[in-house]
Design a protein that fits this description.
Helix content is about 30%, strand content about 20%. It has about 450 residues and is α/β, with parallel strands linked by helices. Strands 7-8-6-9-10-11-12-13-14 form a 9-stranded mixed β-sheet, with helices on both faces. Strands 15-16-20-17-18-19 form a 6-stranded mixed β-sheet, sandwiched between helices.
C-alpha cells in the first residue's frame, strides 16, 4: 500500500467514462477537491457525482482548471500527450492514470495480466481458479469493474486479479504486481501509440516495479515478450502451448515452464515433468485458447491454487461473451460472435479455428497489416463481408484472396454472410478493428450481431 494522501488537494480527472467516474468517486471519498472534465456535453452520472461533491466540467477541457490542479488523473481512453496534460507535467504536477491511482490504496497483492489478445479470458480464469481455491478475489481493471471501485473492499488477504491495457500501463509510476503475466505482443492500437515499439514499451511497464520476491509469467514462444522480460528483477516462469520436450534436454525459459504434453497440462523444470491437469477439463472452443489456459494455470499455481481448484475454475467455462461465443444456427449455417477480436492477430486466430468461414471484418482500423489475414482466409474461408469505415481497406487487402462484399449495416452484413455461407458454412464476426464507427464498444457490436442472427432465424 502506497503512502498517498489527497485530502484537500485539487484533483482533475480527465475523461468521464467508467474508469474516470470511478476515480472521481474514490478521490472524493478520500477528501480531494475533484473536478471531472470531459469533452462531451453531457455526463450521464453528473447528478450522483455532484451529490458526492465532484464538480463537473463538460463540453471541453478548461486550461484554468488544469492550471489550478495539484494532481491530474487520466482515464485510459484519453491520450496522455494532450497539450493540457503536457503543460501540467511541465509545471511539476503529477499526471497519472486511474490504474496507478487505485493501486496506491490497495491492501492486497495484485496479479496483473497484459497482452494483445487473451487478456479477458486469462484474467477471468485466474479469478475463477483462485476463488475455487478459497481465496478472497476481486477481478477487474480493463475488464468489468475499474480498480478504483475495488479499493473500499481491499484487505491484506484480497487478491486483485487485474486486466491491464497498454493505455493503463503507460501512465503507471508505482504500480507493483506480485505476479505479472504478459501473454503476447502483436500490432494493435497503432492509431494511439506512435509506433509498435512505444506500444511494446507500455506493455513492458508491467514488470517495472517488480522485485526478486515477485513473479513474471511470460510467453516462451513470443520472441519480443521474451526479449523485453530479460533482465527484470522478478523471477520468471513461462508457458508454451506446444508439447513439452524431454525433461533436462532443452533449456527452459525461467524457473519452470507450463506446457501441454500429450493429454495433459504439465509443469516442467530441468529435472522433472509434473502432470497438473488433464487437457480434457478445458471446455473453451479453439486450440488457441490453450495459450490462455496455460498462462492462467501458471499464475494460479504461483498464487497457491492446487490442481482441484484449477480444474473447478475451468469446469463449465466456455468463454466470455463476445469471445468465440456461439450465436446460434440458421438452417445448416452456424454463427460465432468474436466481436472482441479487435486486432488483426486476434482475428487471424479466430479464422484459423474453423472451416467454411464467411468472416465479417471491418470497423475503425487501429493499425497493423490486414494482409496477415490472407493466409488464414485462403485456408479456412469462403468469403468476407466488409463492414464499417474500413470496408474499403478490407476489400483492397483481401479481395484477391476470397470474394469480398461490402455491407452498410450489421443487418445487411449478417444477411449477406448467411447467403454466402449456405448451406453448411459458418458466419464469424471477427472484425480485426475497433467498433467506434458504428457502435459504442465491442460488446454493443456483438449484441447487434446476435440480434440480427435472431431476426434472420425468425424471418427465414
Amino acid at each position: 500500500m502506497h503512502d498517498f494522501d489527497v485530502a484537500g488537494r485539487r484533483v482533475v480527472v480527465v475523461g468521464a467514462a467508467r474508469s474516470g467516474v470511478a476515480a472521481a468517486e474514490l478521490l472524493a471519498e478520500r477528501g480531494a477537491r475533484v473536478t471531472l472534465s470531459d469533452t462531451r456535453p453531457v455526463v450521464a452520472e453528473a447528478a450522483a457525482l455532484q451529490a458526492a461533491g465532484v464538480t463537473i466540467e463538460a463540453g471541453g477541457h478548461q486550461a484554468a482548471t488544469f492550471d489550478a490542479a495539484d494532481l491530474v488523473v487520466v482515464s485510459p481512453g484519453v491520450p496522455p500527450d494532450q497539450p493540457l496534460l503536457a503543460a501540467s507535467g511541465a509545471r511539476g504536477v503529477e499526471v497519472i492514470g486511474e490504474l496507478e491511482l487505485a493501486s496506491r490504496w490497495l491492501r492486497g497483492p495484485v496479479i496483473a495480466i497484459t497482452g494483445t489478445k487473451g487478456k479477458s479470458t486469462t484474467t477471468t480464469l485466474i479469478g475463477r481458479m483462485l476463488s475455487a481455491a478459497g481465496r478472497d478475489v476481486l477481478v477487474g481493471g480493463n475488464i468489468g469493474v475499474p480498480l478504483s471501485s475495488q479499493v473500499a473492499r481491499s484487505t491484506p488477504e484480497t487478491v486483485h486479479v487485474v486486466e491491464t491495457s497498454s493505455f493503463q500501463l503507460e501512465t503507471t509510476v508505482h504500480f507493483h504486481p506480485w505476479i505479472a503475466v504478459w501473454l503476447n505482443l502483436a500490432d494493435d492500437h497503432l492509431d494511439r501509440h506512435p509506433s509498435r515499439d512505444a506500444y511494446a514499451r507500455a506493455k513492458a511497464r508491467i514488470f517495472r516495479n517488480q522485485t526478486a520476491a515477485d513473479w513474471a509469467v511470460v510467453n516462451a514462444l513470443d520472441a519480443e515478450v521474451v526479449r523485453r522480460s530479460e533482465g527484470i528483477a522478478a523471477r520468471r516462469v513461462s508457458f508454451a502451448a506446444t508439447p513439452a520436450p524431454t525433461p533436462g534436454k532443452t533449456p527452459l525459459l525461467g524457473e519452470a515452464q507450463f506446457s501441454i504434453d500429450g493429454p495433459s497440462i504439465v509443469r516442467r523444470t530441468t529435472t522433472e515433468t509434473t502432470r497438473i491437469l488433464p487437457l480434457s477439463v478445458v471446455e473453451l472452443p479453439g486450440r488457441h485458447m490453450h495459450h490462455n489456459v496455460l498462462a492462467a494455470v501458471a499464475a494460479a499455481s504461483l498464487a497457491g491454487a492446487g490442481a482441484a481448484a484449477m480444474a473447478e475454475g475451468l469446469s463449465g467455462f466456455r468463454g466470455l461473451d463476445h469471445v468465440m461465443e456461439p450465436a446460434g444456427q440458421v438452417g445448416g449455417v452456424r454463427f460465432i460472435n468474436d466481436s472482441k477480436a479487435t486486432n488483426v492477430e486476434s482475428a487471424a486466430r479466430s479464422i484459423e479455428a474453423f472451416d467454411g468461414v464467411v468472416a465479417l471484418i471491418g470497423g475503425r482500423f487501429k493499425g497493423g497489416d490486414l494482409g496477415e489475414l490472407r493466409q488464414p482466409l485462403r485456408a479456412n474461408a469462403r468469403a468476407v463481408v466488409a463492414i464499417g469505415e474500413s470496408a474499403g481497406l478490407v476489400r483492397d487487402a483481401l479481395g484477391d484472396v476470397v470474394p469480398v462484399e461490402v455491407a452498410g449495416s450489421m443487418a445487411d452484413a449478417v444477411r449477406a454472410a448467411y447467403r454466402l455461407a449456405e448451406p453448411d458454412g459458418l458466419v464469424l464476426l471477427a472484425p480485426a478493428c475497433a467498433s467506434f464507427d458504428w457502435f459504442r464498444d465491442y460488446a454493443e457490436r456483438g449484441r447487434a450481431f446476435k440480434e440480427e442472427v435472431a431476426r434472420l432465424r425468425i424471418d427465414r
